[in-house]
Structures are given as structure tokens and as C-alpha cells.
Amino acid sequence: MKTIKYILGLFVAVGLFTGCQNDDDNLDALNDITAPSEVSAVFNISQDNTGTVIITPNAVGAVNYNITLGDGTAEAVSVAQGENTTHIYEEGTYTVTIEAVSINGLTTEATQQLVVSFRAPENLVITAEVDASNPFQVNVSAVADYAASFEVYFDTSNVDEEATPLALDGTVSFEYDLVGDYTIRVVALSGGVESSEDTVMVTITTPTELPIDFEIFDSTVFFGFGGASGEVIDNPDTNGNESAKVAQIIKGAPEVWAGNVIELSAPIDFSTKKVMKFDVWSPRPGGTFTLKLENLTDPNIFIEVGVPLVGNSQWEEVSIDLSEFANLETDSFQKIVWFFDLGTAGDGSADWTFYLDNIRQDFAGVVVSQIVEDFEGVVPTFTVFGNIADTQVVTNPDMSGINTSANVAQLTKTAGSEVWAGTFFELDAPLDLASFGQMNVKTWSPTAGITVKFKLENADASITYEGDVVTTVANEWENLLYDFTAAPMADYIRLVIFFDFGNPGDDSLYYYDDIELVGTQQDFSFQDFEGTAPTFTVFGNIADTQVVANPDMSGINTTANVAQLTKTAGSEVWAGTFFETDPLDLNTYNQISVKTWSPTSGITIKLKLENADASITHEKDITNTVANGWEELVYDFSDAPAADYVRVVIFFDFGNNGDDSVYYFDEYTLTN
């Protein structure tokens, strides 16, 4: 268009200077212009494998161009002289047609071959990482210069494995069934025929994490020191522990501190479960079991607790509550160390052969439960399988013993039905196995000694977990407890039950009821003076109570802040202090513990609870036994009358006048 304007302007100028040259002369000038010549185009192909091509046409005597792109695009693209057009091609060879147009409409056409060839990707870098929350899952991403996308092969057992597409800046995941070394192959695609590839090896291992039951872990998971051996063997005594495999420890000479250690893959999470449990077998009566938890790199950071054993060549559960250790959560404990009869040298004989199994965590506190289904409301939709009759909700046929509820579920195991016949229903919300690790089911069977299998499944049954319990009574209700603490993480919504699993049906009728999750309630700390200080009210002519820095960070109390009470000289024998809190839950908890520090022992420390207007009160006295050190006092309020207790009152050296003694208290906790 600029050329047209220029020529027209020239014609106007000529007209002005010549005066009155006629129109015929102008038309003669236009007619003298010939068609464009030397028609061509410059192709600028980008080097990023996007297929982007900039087409710049050129010709002698042309003012604009019509370009046919050659890839099937229907309409030609119009381009003015000196300008260009951009188009994206796939890899291939194309015939581009350039039609050049002169100012008077004359055209000249030329064709030119365009070759779009993609460059093979370069500098391929593969990242393959085992998922932090699932040790069998690997997450893969990749980057490469000139890559348009990627394909990933996960080295599965399928010889015809299909590629998993991986986008730029994307991540794909795969979950393996077994441990082992896997070679992951990644192909970087250019968008055309050119590609490049590389491989990376990933190792899937079973992480050393709690619980540890030695059914999966072999002897390499732990080792002995100081003369103690460690080996995983067949369980020599299944009475009291039905595990197939257990750890055998033989304590030999020379060291009295000979023991064993397990190094975990990650620090133990003590945020909720603060109790460590072990199944232990000792060959003789008495003796001790000592647990030591250590930091991975600093052996000076540790917790050590010793407990007595019953022994007598039988399995027993050792439970060690670590909730009193202030550094339990702040320090990182990744080594589990244990000693049998610490302080005494073993001789490697049968008398010094011990067994250990089922290392696990548990909650500190009291047992609580959550009903999942009691069949008293809307009846769930049952699905039966294995050729048994439909499961129904019926009137309880035996309202006695532990089950006097109105309705129960009835399962008829039809004669000739499969040995695996059973029934299931689905829940509206997944089971909360994070808070509750076990499940109770009340069952009724016409015979004792049958296996009742209970199974959990997610929505598509891709993740399942099951447990077996053998009934012990006939023709009466019995509570069966299933342990699901080792169930893999999943949204379990399907509850499946099998009666007399392993035997074909014989028309027997079975009943079940009151499916409930079972867990434990942790102790509840309702005031530790580490946050906003409560408002204290003092009485009996003593100085104000204050929150101060802990003057004795030792023993059972290494917290930063504590409350200080000064019983001023001459103050009343009943002088004390109180603060208010939310109503205390004495329905769930029946005791209150408080840590105290006194310069003298043998004094009475009274703890009193009051409702808002002090019309209902209850108090308890304890005589302390420690001077110049922290001591935990536990007050039993199980007989307190029902009330909303919001006021907590404490008296030091109750019954005696003040003498300017300074007392400290800390960590009020509801417990049982």
C-alpha cells in the first residue's frame, strides 16, 4: 500500500507541475507497468521445535502478495510488500505458493519448497524420586532442550508396557508392587520424528518404619553390639504371639551393656502416639527390658527407660509411656536401642536367649470409641457374594449379655455356598483410622471356633486390608476386636464380613452388630503457661501470682515458663490463687495432674475445682514428697459432683501461715 500511495502521489505531483495533462496520459503510464518478476520468499524456521515459520515474500514490482501455505490451509494469506506472515507447521515438506500482485493488478506466481525438520531434543535430565508418603511410588519428571513432550516407561513386568505421556513441566507417578531395582526409560519427543532418550535406575525398598513385626523385615534390619546377636527366625513359641517370624537375641560376653539397635528411615513421630510397645519373651523370671531412643547423629541426645519383666519363658507385652519426656517431640529420635538385663553380662546360653516382636506405637490415655454402624437407623445397602442369601437387618434374636440392642444384621450362609461367601455395605464417609486403629464387632454364632474375617476396602477395592478372629462362644454374643493399625493409608468405605471363612455354607444363621472404631484418648493439657498467661486471682493476703521463666529446668519439667506463687509472711493458712478456664471434661477424664516445685517436702498441696459462681466445689489434698525439685501430683476427681468446673484453685502448705516461701506449678493436665 505504501508503494501505491507513492506512485499516486507522484502522479498528482506531475499533474500539478504540468498543469493540465489529460487522464489518457495517466492511464498510459499505468498500462506501461509490467507484472512482478523475481518472485520468491524467505523462510525463517524457529529452532525450538515448535514448527513456527516466518514467511517473508519479495518480488520486483509487487505491492502485495497472496501466499498459499501448502499444508491444507484453505485460504491464502495476504501480505503487503515489506511485511511477513507467521504459521505453525508440523514436521514435513510443503509447497508454498507466492502470488505477487503489481499496482495495476497484474500477478506473477511462483512456488517454493519448505522443509520443516525438527531437531532432536538435547540435554535430557530425568528426575525420579520415591514418594515421601508412599515408599512404593515413584514420581518422574524431565527436562530437555527442544523437547515438546516426553514418554515414560516404568520397567513394569508387562512386556508390552505402554508409554505414559509426560508433559513439559509435568510429573507422572507409578506404584510398584514389589521391592527391587527398576530402570525407568524416558523418551524426549521433538514434535516430529526426532527424539532422544535416557534411563535412570530407582530402588524400591521397604522403609524401616514402625510398626516392625519381622514378617517383612529380615535380619538386616537390626544388629547386635557388645556381644549380643540379632537374627530373624521362625517363632519358637506361638502361644501368646501367633507371628510366624520373630527377632532372636542371644546375649553373650563380654559387655554388660550388650544390646541391639534398629535405625529407622525417618525420625519417630511422637506428636500423637507417645507409648512404645514390644512383645517380649524372656527365659527366666524377673529381669529387665531397657529401651533407649537415640538421635541419628548425636548419641548424647537420648531417652532411656527400664521396665521389669515377668519372664518365665512366655510372651508378654511391654508398654513404655514416654509422654513425660519434655524433649520427646523436640528432639529427633531415629534409633531404637534395647537391652535385656542391662548391667549383667550374658554367657550366650539358652538362659540368655530372648525373643522380641511387634515394635509399635500407641496412644497414652483412655480407650474411646466411635460407632460406625449399629443398624438402628437407616438400613445400609448390603451386597452379598458367594451364593448366600440376602443379608437383612432383623430384630435381635438374643437380647442378652453384651448386646441388648433392638436390631442386628443377619447373615445366612446358604448350604453349598462358597467357602469365601460374605456380605458388605458401604459408608458415606471413610473410616478414621488415623485416630482409631482397631475395630470392635459384636457377633453371634451357633458354633464356637469358626473364623470370622473382617475386611476393609476402598471404593474400587484396589486397596484392602483384612483380619481374622476365631470365635470362642456358641449361641451368645461375643465382642471381636480387629487390629487395623498396620492397614495402608486409604479411604476405606467398604466393610466386608465373612462367617466361618474357609468352609462351605450349611444354612447356619449368624448375626453381627455395633461395628465401632476403637482408639485411645490422649491426656489433655489445659494450661501450661507457654501461651497467653491466664488472669490469676489471689486471696488470703499473698503476693500476686505470676508466670515466670522456669527456675529449675530439670527432671520431669524442662518447659520454659511456669507459674510462681509466693506465700507472703503472715498470710492466711488458706491463702492461695486461681484462674479460670473452659469447662473441664470430667466425663472423659477423672484425674488432674499438676507439676509442682516446693522448697520443702511434707506440705499439703490442695487442688480445688469450682463452677462459675462457686456454688459447686470439689477439692483434694496431696502431701508432697520432694524438696527443691519438680514432682507430679495426680488428684482424683472421679467422685466430683457433676458441674461445669471452670475455676482451678491451688493452695500451697495449706493449714500453715505464709513465711515468704516461693512455690512453682505447671502443666495442668486432664488424665485417667
Helix content: under 10%
Tally of domains = 5
Number of helices: 2
Report the structural category.
mainly beta
Name the average pLDDT: 90
Say what the CATH topology of the largest domain is: Jelly Rolls
Query: What is the CATH superfamily label of the largest domain?
Result: Galactose-binding lectin
Count of DSSP E strands? 46
Write down the Rg.
Answer: 41 Å
The first-to-last residue Cα distance is: 94 Å
Broad shape: extended
Unreliable sequence segments: 1-22
Fold and architecture overview:
The N terminus is likely disordered. The protein is mainly beta. It has five domains: 84 residues, Sandwich (Immunoglobulin-like); 83 residues, Immunoglobulin-like, CATH 2.60.40.10; 137 residues, Jelly Rolls; 155 residues, Sandwich (Jelly Rolls); 148 residues, Jelly Rolls. The strands form ten sheets. Strands 25, 27, 28, 30, 33 and 35 form a six-stranded antiparallel β-sheet that branches. Strands 36, 38, 39, 41, 44 and 46 form a six-stranded antiparallel β-sheet that branches. The chain has a five-stranded antiparallel β-sheet with strand order 15-18-23-20-21, with no helix packed on it. It has two helices and 46 strands. Helices cover 4% and strands 47% of the residues.
Sum this structure up briefly:
This protein has 672 residues and is mainly beta.
Descriptive labels:
single chain, 672 residues, mainly beta, Immunoglobulin-like, Jelly Rolls, 5 domains, six-stranded antiparallel sheet, 46 strands
Question: SSE layout and pairings?
Answer:
Blueprint: H1 2-18, H2 23-31, E1 37-45, E2 52-60, E3 64-68, E4 77-80, E5 85-88, E6 92-101, E7 107-116, E8 122-130, E9 137-145, E10 149-153, E11 164-166, E12 172-175, E13 180-189, E14 195-204, E15 222-225, E16 231-234, E17 245-250, E18 259-263, E19 275-282, E20 288-294, E21 302-308, E22 314-321, E23 335-340, E24 353-362, E25 366-373, E26 383-385, E27 392-395, E28 407-413, E29 422-426, E30 436-445, E31 451-457, E32 464-470, E33 476-483, E34 494-499, E35 508-521, E36 524-527, E37 537-539, E38 546-549, E39 561-567, E40 576-580, E41 591-598, E42 604-610, E43 617-623, E44 629-636, E45 647-652, E46 661-671
Antiparallel strand pairs: 1-2, 2-5, 3-4, 3-6, 6-7, 8-9, 9-12, 10-11, 10-13, 13-14, 15-18, 16-17, 17-24, 18-23, 19-22, 19-24, 20-21, 20-23, 25-35, 26-29, 27-28, 28-35, 29-34, 30-33, 30-35, 31-32, 31-34, 36-46, 37-40, 38-39, 39-46, 40-45, 41-44, 41-46, 42-43, 42-45
